[in-house]
Amino acid sequence: MKNVMFQIKYDFINGIVHQWKKFLLIAVVYAVLITDFLVRCKTKHFMGQYTSSDIILYIFRGMRWIVDVQTDINIPTAYILPNILIGFAIGNYPFKDINGYGRMVLMRAGKKLVWWISKCIWAVFTACICYGILILEIAGVSLAGGRLSLQVNKQVCISIDGYDKTLIKNNPNLTRNRNG
């Protein structure tokens, strides 16, 4: 147990505290994506009407279904770029660790299982930090100019996110009556 706690502490210090530049980069990318959303809101005259859920749907909207050969493929960079950066942040540290000082720490720990468990705990915690940064930025922007709410604004979803009107109108789980 002593070796496990030593390894986890080592990973948290070297994989999170000393890797702060990667988290800053992810925060900047999220800020750019949220700014893009706000520019689209301003262009379509929806400033002040958006909610936290609208921003979340914009960032995680993914790709539209391709129904015919003539449809242009539009790769959703707002979805892919942050996830690539998170994957890089998670994958880069263990690789550098095992090829550097971490090799000596692994020898001190004595078991590869301890090293592996520590890296798994660190990876989950790192992913939570990355998505926590996004949540904090969305909450800050929503409090500053929109509404901090998980209720979706139908008009924002249709015009800015490009969602199909029929999917939004026919889905009672997506939108709720404000009075009920």
Layout of SSEs?
Layout: H1 2-17, H2 20-43, H3 52-59, H4 77-98, H5 102-109, H6 112-145, H7 154-161, H8 165-169
Descriptive report:
The protein has 180 residues and is mainly alpha-helical. The protein has eight helices and no strands. It has helices at 2-17, 20-43, 52-59, 77-98, 102-109, 112-145, 154-161, 165-169. The model is unreliable at 176-180 (pLDDT under 50).
Features:
8 helices, mainly alpha, 180 residues
Strand content: under 5%
Query: How far do the termini sit from each other?
Result: 52 Å
The average pLDDT value, as a whole number, equals 80
Q: Please estimate the helix content.
A: 55-70%
The arrangement of helices and strands along the chain is: HHHHHHHH
How would you describe the shape?
Answer: elongated
How many DSSP-defined strands?
Answer: 0
Low-confidence stretches: 176-180
Biggest β-sheet description: none
> Which class do the helix and strand fractions yield?
mainly alpha
- Specify the number of helices: 8
Rounded radius of gyration (Å): 21 Å
Oligomer: single chain
Provide a short characterization of the protein structure.
The chain has 180 residues and is an all-alpha fold. It contains eight helices and no strands.
